[in-house]
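A protein record pairs a chain with a discrete description of its three-dimensional fold. The shape at a given residue is found from the number at the same position. Here is what such a record looks like in full:
>
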Amino acid sequence: MAAFTEEELRDIAARALFWKERPELVRAGVVEIGDAPPEVRGEFFVRWQKNAGGSGGEKAFGKRLALDGLSPEEAGRLLGPVRWKAGAPLPAWVRELDRAMSRLEERPSDPPPEGSPGPWDLTPALEPFLDFAGERLAVSLGERIRLFADAAVRDVRGALARRLNRLCMRTCRARFQAAMGGKNPLYVLLGPLMCRDETAAEWKAFLGGLRAGAWKDVLREHPVLARLMMLDVDRWTRNLAAFAGHLAADMAKLEAAFNGGKPLGRLAAVEADASDVHHGGKTVLLLSFESGLKLVYKPRSLAVDVAWSAWVRWLERDGIPHRLRTPAVLDAGDHGWAEFMERRPLEREEDAAAFYFRAGVLLGTIYALGGNDFHFENMIACGAHPVPIDLETLLLHRVKPFDLTVSGKNAAHLAHDELDDSVLRVGMLPYWHVDAQGKAADWGALTCREARGLHLPVLHGRPLDVRDYEEHLLAGFAWVYDRIAGEKRRLLGEDAGEASPLDAFGSCRLRFMIRNTQVYADVLNHAARPEFLRDGLLYSFEVERLAPAFLLWAPDGELRALWNVFCAERDALENRDIPIFYGQARGLALEDDTGALHPGYFMESAVDRAKNLIRRMDERDKNVQIGLIQAALHMGAASSHADEERASDRASDKFRIPEAPAVPDDDHLIGEAAGIFEEIAARRIVGADGDVAWITPQFHLQARKIAPGRIGWSFYDGLIGLGVFMAALFRLTGRETIRETALRTVNPVLKSLGGKNPPFPVQRLSLGLGSGLGGIIRGLAVMGEYLKEPSLREAGLDLARRIPPEMVDGDRWLDVIGGSAGLILALLDLHRPGKDDDLLGLAKRCGQHLLKSRVRTKSGHGVWTAGTGNEPLTGMGHGAAGFAAALYRLARVTKEEAFREAALEAMEYENGLYDGERHNWPDLRQASAPSAGGRPAFMAGWCSGAPGVGLARIAMLAAGGEAGKAEEVREAGEGGEAGNDGADRKEAQCRDMEHHRRMAQDIENAVAFAQACPMETHDHVCCGNAGRIDFLIEASLTLDRPDLLEEARRKAGAVLARKHRNGHYLLHAGGQGALFNPSFFQGISGIGYTFLRCAAPRAIRSVLR
């Protein structure tokens, strides 16, 4: 019995069409497009242009339409309501849908089975679809159904149920919640957790309603959902049938290769969710046979796995301290079978050393071959053996940049290559993966602490930490490095008559990821929202969010060829697949399963790239890579700020200050800053067009960690910070080469910000003074002042005026470093009374956002958590001091009392935590850390600690010239005006006076701390000695105390004395100071700027307050 009428089926088929199908079927005479009201058509058109054109707007979207051979008018006509013509054949999936839905008619009154899963599991309502799919599978399998035990059949059925659950859940849940809200308004207010019993009962009834026929309404309303459900059923059936055919055909070979010739028995269990879905729903299967054997089925060639085994045998040919384990494999061409590698614990302590030696060998080998993507999900800790389990990216092609010019690569490309040709690319060392919710996690195979991972070795029930076995890791790396470098001639094919071991990879097809898989997963997740499943056009428009990468950056002459790549992405995503691409090991074409997509996508084949990487291997490169390994491990463990100081740190010789260091004079300080400039300039990467870049430790905003990377734009650790330092040095030296380098350094930022085609999408950046837009704005203004270049200030003004107000409303970082508080400070720097009302309006919006974002503490104060945790912090960078300074300055300009009250409340909260014995405010991040054991922890830097708090209070006093007002308050206290008005004014003045006294006292406390505290184990601005020196200079100017400037110079002399003894400044946790870091806040340019301040405190101003 049919579930739908023919008219309903035609309507479902028509509305489920994706964009690409509309013009094709119109031309074929299958469908016709009607007229839509102008406002409806316009809404569709605007949505499509916004997604596909991105920041390129109308111009980029025009390119996109031209690729389909359409004008905007022609495209607009195709956006009307579509009708499937009567008599035209319907797609097969529509007929299959009708047959599946007829199952509902056969048993409409069946209740969901007892003991079924609780809320948010649709499986009971999906049973009719699962039964339909099972019957189709049984027909497709025929006699091969006997390969599956009953439990295995249940497993594969469960995999389909989970996939359909994920696809349908949001649509069904939205429908359920709307119904619940209509019945019980409390549900809307309290949510399902507060109405748990009622929710469970109603959900069960809702599932029964779906089985009784409500699916018909759901799928008529969401025809794209109907299409995708039947697509999943069809692909599940076809892929399992193909798998069963492979299993039957290969059974004898499998028994011989993996089970000693003994029978495998039937499939006892199947895990069918073991990988992403590619190529028409194909996925890896984990198989358990009745014989007890476990195998892995992969629906692709395993030629690269076979080649890997041959490579390992070659490595071990002349002996190796610890042999590597490679899974046994059987390659069958279009599919393959592999030994199942099970996680097993270590048995002895010495096994840990062997494990990490082998890990070092793997790291060095994959580095030499040029591979990547060996993160925690692609590594198994099998006893004392780390075993890579997905080798598709063992070698990697070098891609041709879209914007490559005839003159060659720019500095950004060259810096990218330098990173991509290092051990950091492999994936085994710490790197930060950001999910759709913006949460960052370390995915490194050696360092990730994900509980679901199988990659970490376990000894006596405890996962080990690679940092405790670093010497063994480095020993393994050095061993294999020397082994490969020592056979360089043979590997490069330069030994006559000797085949290169690399030849084994020559016929392999290798995966190439043009985007991170998470990007595709996010698009699929977003497109499956109920509102986009109502119309195939809306679903297609969401997929076209990937189009701007091609429309904005591909050269016009290359766009049509490159558009084939986007079309392949689109087709895969519209079929709910993760797109996957390949290149032949010796070829330059990008391919998918349909064939070549772009014949010259790569500029270097994977084999040639591996040879070039091996060709450059020498002692210097080995030491560079070992240094990167050490730096990555220590940075991955450390916070973005200084770790809590350890007694062992202070006891170490490298941290000790030489006795009686000399106080440097102005020339000495400027000379040291000039030396820092020369080192930075010498390390730059210069592009073909003369632009520059650096490889530096970079602040990862989501992870709050430091990681090596190509230099960005920010003030904190990017080009703007370097430019400010160079501009200040030019101001004091007048050296034209310094000025030229400063301008060249920030030129990439100016080019991008000034680009009109497309305009730079400022939404990609955060707002703050350290890592975001506020820092760029302030930095450009300061550079403009020092270099006497008004255009730089104007560029900052232009950037500020391009910040959309809704970006402020969405800010969740909030603080000075990353959020609205930092942007307030930068905007007020630029604001001129009566001239820049738009900037003041944006600053007020930031202030209002901060007022709305406060949380109440146990003490009753309204303050901010600033995206760093649950505890509102103290200090300038992330804490109450920075918020108070920003809001107090804003209040003085706007005269709005709410900002002033919030600032004073934040100051009161912070001072409630002040420790009088230490003359300091606690760092609550470290107090909550396990290592702190809940004890108060203290820092002595700009970001957290007394110096930063002192700078914030100086900024508050300076905001309205309170030093002068103090005298007025004293006079009012001695006898001011009579009458109520005079009394009220006097009371207000007294309150102000008390607040100013408190600010002044906080400054004195911070001064006492800065004078008494021993030198930091870090020298940089953010958390170390340079930040403390900057505060002493500001305090000297504010309090008119020359002795504090002299103290600042003494501390600068101590920093210099220690630097000259050690050979480098101390910048990172664990003493990793030798790592080159030119950045302003955590590197040497900020130290150099501090020296310039010591030499000329009035000419070179503080940029930290």
Observations:
- The two ends are 76 Å apart (CA to CA).
- Confidence is low (pLDDT under 50) at residues 642-651, 928-932, 963-979.
- DSSP finds 40 helices and 25 strands in the chain.
- Residues 223-258 form the longest helix (36 residues).
